[in-house]
Amino acid sequence: MPANRFNGFTEYGVGIGLRIPHYRHILNKKPVVDWFEIISENYMVDGGRPLEVLDQILEQYNVVQHGVSMYFGSVTDPDPEHLKRLKRLVKRTKTPWLSDHLCWGSVDGRYTHDLLPMPYTWEAVKVTAERIKKVQDFLEIPVVVENVSSYAEYHVSEMTEWEFLNEVVERADCGILLDVNNIYVSSQNHSFDPITYVNAVPAERIAQIHIAGHSKFEKYILDTHDHPVLEPVWQLYARTIERAGPTATLLEWDDNIPSFEEVHAEALKAKKFLITATKAAAPELAEAAR
């Protein structure tokens, strides 16, 4: 599914996150990059340096918005002012889809600024799907939800995480940003088979994939985004591409950020999987992608 209604029928390749340490390099060197992902909240301002840089990036690159504060799993309606500012940015970037996390993090207007895991209950499915539909209807572009890494579980859960994800996206009729690093991190913390998770997700709804590095500690694994992608995560990525086809892929590297060249080179390792998937679907397109 190189293009589907959940990613605006685009065929984006391999992108990286737009980060401040790389601004100068990108603006001066103008490297060839398939696309950049931006954190929406960093640019929901009225002016200044962030928007000045963003406008220069938009002159040459495709940009996709990724949010960190929608909290689809929270019980209250989204903040109307937040949505208005987000929609203004959507019109500015012309992002073909917008992603945010399947989590909760706000109560009565107070924000935790963290991506807290959901209780996997039928009531949470209903509330979360309704909230996603409201956001999608307001923004008038496809909204896709990302699975988060987690370090705690709820005794009240009535289904697995992947069953919860599937129920939410079906009821909301939205796409999925499948973070295969998050799947691996959670699988090690909660003792489940990550391949079972990947195989259970509806491939036709996968709009985008995240890859990243993580850190191992004695009793748990932490989603740190400060390493190259580790082999078990590449294996999950390969299986996802095998099922979904060549899909827009984004490397997250948010701490101990190395040079632009190093980050981009790590991201481009995904190309071999995408070419293999493309070759299986259409050999002539795979040759053109080399």
Describe this structure in words.
This protein is an alpha/beta fold and 290 residues long. It has a single domain (14-288), classed as TIM Barrel. The chain contains eleven helices and twelve strands. The protein has helices at 23-29, 49-58, 80-93, 122-139, 161-172, 180-190, 194-200, 231-244, 260-268, 271-281, 283-289, and strands spanning 14-17, 35-39, 63-66, 98-101, 104-107, 110-116, 143-146, 175-179, 206-212, 215-216, 221-222, 249-252. Strand 1, helix 1 (23-29) and strand 2 (35-39) form a beta-alpha-beta unit. 41% of the residues are buried.
List the helices and strands and how they pair.
Elements: E1 14-17, H1 23-29, E2 35-39, H2 49-58, E3 63-66, H3 80-93, E4 98-101, E5 104-107, E6 110-116, H4 122-139, E7 143-146, H5 161-172, E8 175-179, H6 180-190, H7 194-200, E9 206-212, E10 215-216, E11 221-222, H8 231-244, E12 249-252, H9 260-268, H10 271-281, H11 283-289
Parallel strand pairs: 1-2, 1-12, 2-3, 3-4, 4-7, 7-8, 8-9, 9-12
Antiparallel strand pairs: 5-6, 10-11
Helix pairs in contact: 4-5, 7-8, 10-11
Protein name: DUF692 domain-containing protein
InterPro entries: MbnB/TglH/ChrH, Xyl_isomerase-like_sf
Organism: Alloacidobacterium dinghuense
Q: Descriptors for this entry?
A:
12 strands, about 290 residues, 11 helices, single chain, TIM Barrel, globular
Structural class per helix/strand content? alpha/beta
Give me the CATH fold name.
Answer: TIM Barrel
What value does the Rg take, in angstroms? 18 Å
- Report the CATH C-level class: Alpha Beta
In the CATH hierarchy, the architecture is: Alpha-Beta Barrel
Question: Count of DSSP E strands?
Answer: 12
What fraction of the residues are assigned to beta strands by DSSP? Answer: 15-25%
Helix coverage percent of residues? 40-55%
Low-confidence stretches: none
Mean of pLDDT: 94
Major β-sheet annotation: 8 strands, parallel, barrel
Number of helices: 11
CA-CA gap between termini: 19 Å
Q: CATH superfamily, please?
A: Divalent-metal-dependent TIM barrel enzymes
Protein name: DUF692 domain-containing protein
Pfam families: MbnB_TglH_ChrH (PF05114)
InterPro entries: MbnB/TglH/ChrH (IPR007801), Xyl_isomerase-like_sf (IPR036237)
